[in-house]
Amino acid sequence: MARFLDEDPFNGASAMRSTFTFTSDLPVAVIALRGLVNERSEFLMTTLPVAPLSPPAGGTFYFPHFTDGGGWTTQVILVNPTDAPIAGNVQFFGSGSETEAADPATLTLADGRTGSEFTYSIAPRSATRLETANPAGSTQQSGSVRVVADPGSPVPSGVSVFAYERGGITVSEAGVPASTAGAAFRVYVEASGTPEQPHSVRSGIALTNTSSAPVTVSLELTDLDGTATGLPESLTIPASGHIARFIDQFFPALTTPFSGILRVTSTATDIALVGLRLTTNERNDLVITTTPPSDESSATNSTDLFFPHFVDSGGWTTQFILFSGSPGQTASRVIRFTGQDGQPLELPVAPTAAPTIP
Amino acid sequence: MIHKKLTVVLVALLSIATAQAQTDNDRTTVYVDTVLGSFSIELLDDVSPNTAANFLNYVRDGDYDGTFFHRAIPGFILQGGGFSMGTNGVVSAVPSDPPVANEFRLPNIRGTIAMAKLPGDPDSATNQWFVNLADNSEILDAQNGGFTVFARVLGDGMGVVDAIVAQPIISRGGAISNTPTIDYFGGVISRGHLVNINSMTVIEYTLTSTGIASPASAPTGTSVLFTVTVTPGTNPASTGITVTADLSSIGGSAAETLFDDGTNGDVVSGDNVFSFLATVGSGTSSGAHSITVNVSDSISRTGTTSLALTVSTRQTFSISDRGGVSLSSEGASATTVSGYGRVEADDGSTTPEGLAIFGFRPNGILVSEAGVPASATLQEGRIFAEIDGPVRTGLAIANPNDTAAMIAFFFTNSDGIDSGHGSLTLGPREQNGTISGRRSL
Questions:
Q1: What is the DSSP string of B353-397?
Q2: B406 vs A333, which has greater pLDDT?
């Protein structure tokens, strides 16, 4: 099924802000999408995570990037995966500098609250949302977000959605999945075209240091063949700090167009990151999406992997990306596409080409 | 009681194929079980339909059950269908239906069966019939309008007929005239001395069977187990069942044998479940394939069924350590298509990381992209659900299983109060709906 929740067969209320819980007698592949019809009547999409009903252990997770002001807003959405109330607080941090630790970032929320730390309390099976206000005339500030569960309280699941508004029109939204701290990550990246010119694509990462001490991070870039580009880079992130850069900023000598894998490592389990991809469209607007990283420490297995939804033609395209997510991992796999009716579908796909300027 | 005499004719006009020919499955077959053995006869429904139908009425009514062959003339005919003898020794005539108009078409050669008639009355055939023991065409085909051949003895059934005729033949008057007997040494003739027909049964020629392919959906280059379950025929019980499947559409033999001997994927020998483990050829076209299966047994009963197999094509790729692959759909179809993708191990390698990025470019302008991580399947989950003005939350569910998935759901408001529960069934391998615009997902 791929339906809005106010449509059959879900038939949710025409106005609601709640949670939707499902159970299936067979394993199914599921994704949730948030659709926003903007002021130009254009359909903007953001991915929403599907939370497992068994909450993960651990009391803290991170959104490696938020931004507010200057047209930007960020929503932090938290879902209670349990049948009991949960509580904790949401902490906003700035970026810091090469020499100074990041300070808590003071924000004004849409509900009028101001501060850098906001408590949450979520009823069983329910959800809550914090939304920054993007006050008029405010300057842009960016950083990271920590969600800290109260002692003994399970951690919620969550997503942060940041949106960019220009001229009174929301031109882009992107969802940042919650992350746990790790020591090594891989993320798919691309770069093509002239930055900030129509049809250009720029990948970057937002990286946060979850510890109270500066951390040195190494960056290694390989192409899709797994061949190193020979452009190693390292940088220092201050305590609780945050860095968000494009790969052409990390690697000025990078030859474009480029597609490959960025490996980010730290000497300790103290970083969290998310990949960002900005495409400048034909109107010179920024279209942002996130590219989730893989944590190299995640256990590998041989189970089948699913793209729960794709759509093609009628203005739609889908790009399928698969990459080695852990040290030494190679894979030989097949992809089969199935239509909505359960019949095999011939979906013509080809290696992704760099965008061309008409 | 009507006692009909066989009229002898002298000229044979036609010739037909041998009576030992195999049956035509469009014709009705009757199994004749006698105290001296059994044989099958094929009714020539298409040649002499009224006469065959007349005979069949008697068979279906059971009128011939318990009758005896009352007249045997070696080298000429064996006649029956007229009388039965009770355990008390009383002979009774078979009740006759209205006579049937003569339908003489084929010559009375050995192995054919024709209706007896009253002398000088071509249209007088009712219940008595006879088997030609030799080529009697010269005698019977021209006389009394010709004797209507309406059936023939199948296979080696004439061996049974000849054995009956070879019994001692006696005449005592009435129905017992030129009558073959068994162990009769004089005295009162009892039922046990006669060559009785225990029963006549219409053979149901359709062997029923069902077939499945497992898995029902498979990509090229993979193995599929085809299984056909056959319900054997009765009266007589099927023997020598064979099952073949036309696998030519998936790169196999046009008459591939399925096995019931514990090999080729068969699990239990002799259980009438036939199997064959096939490989879907690399050149097989994708989509639904209906594979025809033919079933037969030793007496040429046949049946057909089909095996439904959906063949999918595959995109193969290899990823090196620290590498990846990026594939994009072309967006060039005439209509919007949607569904889901499955990434499978080709050689047992571990699962890579996956990501799909949807791009929506109406009127040539990219307005939105969304990165969706590939994931394993799950059986439960919870999402943030928002329907608020321009914001709507949608859900895509794909059921990759070969059976329907039952999904229950409910909503919970911000106070933790559940509401709006429901359930849905998602068919095998289905993923319905589409992202096709701002107002529908």
A1: EEEEEEEE-GGG---EEEEEE-B--EEEEEEEEEEETTEEEEEEE
A2: B406
Of B387, B401, B410, the CB nearest to A15: B387
Residue found under tokens 């999406």 = A289
What residue type is assigned to position B268 of the chain? Answer: V
Report the side by side order of strands in the sheet with B112-115.
B71-73, B77-80, B129-132, B112-115, B149-153, B37-43, B29-34, B197-203
In chain B, which among 154-213 make CB contacts under 8 A with chain A? none
Q: What is the tens place of the pLDDT at every residue in B138-176?
A: 999 999 999 999 999 998 999 999 999 999 999 988 999
Chain B contact set for A317 (CB, 8 A) = 328-331, 358-359, 361
Q: Determine the distance in angstroms separating the CA of A100 from the nearest CA of chain B, rounded to an integer.
A: 33
Contact B167, B175 (CB under 8 A): no
* Element (DSSP H or E) covering residue B24: none
The reply to whether A317 touches chain B by the CB within 8 Å rule is yes
Whole-number Å distance between alpha carbons of A283 and A272 = 33
Whole-structure pTM value:
0.66
Q: Taking a contact as any Cβ pair under 8 Å apart, which residues of chain B between 204 and 263 contact chain A?
A: 217, 219
Q: Does A157 touch chain B if contact means CB atoms closer than 8 Å?
A: yes
CB contact under 8 A, A36 and B396: no
- B215 preceded by a cis bond (ω within 30 of 0): yes
Q: In the predicted model, is pLDDT for residue B382 greater than 70?
A: yes
* Two tokens, residue A88: 């904790």
Question: Taking a C-beta distance cutoff of 8 angstroms, is the pair B398, A6 a contact?
Answer: no
Which among B38, B15, B11, B285 has a CA at the least distance from the CA of B138? B11
Q: Is B188 exposed, middle or buried (0-12, 13-18, 19+ CB in 10 A)?
A: exposed
Test A23 with B341 for CB contact under 8 angstroms.
no
**Residues B170, B72: Cα–Cα separation, whole Å:** 9
> B232-235 long-range contacts, Cβ below 8 Å, gap at least 24?
B232/B207, B232/B272, B232/B297, B233/B203, B233/B204, B233/B205, B233/B207, B233/B297, B233/B299, B233/B301, B234/B204, B235/B31, B235/B201, B235/B203
Identify the residue among A338, A346, A357 best suited for mutation to test binding to B, counting B beta carbons within 10 A and taking the highest.
A338
User: What's the N-to-C CA distance of chain B in angstroms?
Assistant: 82
What is residue B348's predicted lDDT score, i.e. its pLDDT? Answer: 67
Which of A221, A306, A349 is the best substitution to test chain B (most B C-beta atoms within 10 A)?
A: A306
Average pLDDT over residues A301-315: 89
**Chain B, window 289-348: residues with a beta carbon less than 8 angstroms from a chain A beta carbon:** 310-348
The alpha carbon of residue B402 is apart from the nearest alpha carbon of chain A, in Å, by 9
CA–CA distances in Å: residue B318 to residues A227, A306, B118, B314, B345: 14, 17, 87, 13, 10
Q: Which two tokens stand for residue B376?
A: 């394993």
Among the partner-chain residues B321, B331, B427, the one whose CB lies closest to the CB of A329 is B321
Phi, then psi, of B213 in degrees rounded to 5? -110, 135
Chain B residues with CB inside 8 Å of A304's CB? 342-345, 351, 376-377, 400
The phi and psi torsions of B330 (rounded to 5 degrees) equal -90, -15
CB atoms within 10 A of CB A51: 26
Q: pLDDT at position A57, please?
A: 58
Mean pLDDT (chain B) is 87
Q: Do B416 and A123 touch (CB under 8 A)?
A: yes
3-class DSSP state of B162: helix
Per-residue pLDDT tens digits for B81-129: 999 999 999 999 999 999 999 999 999 999 999 999 999 999 999 999 9
Q: Which residues contact B29 (CB under 8 A, 6 or more apart)?
A: B23, B40, B41, B42, B43, B154, B202, B203, B205, B299
Peptide linkage before A55 cis (omega within 30 of 0): no
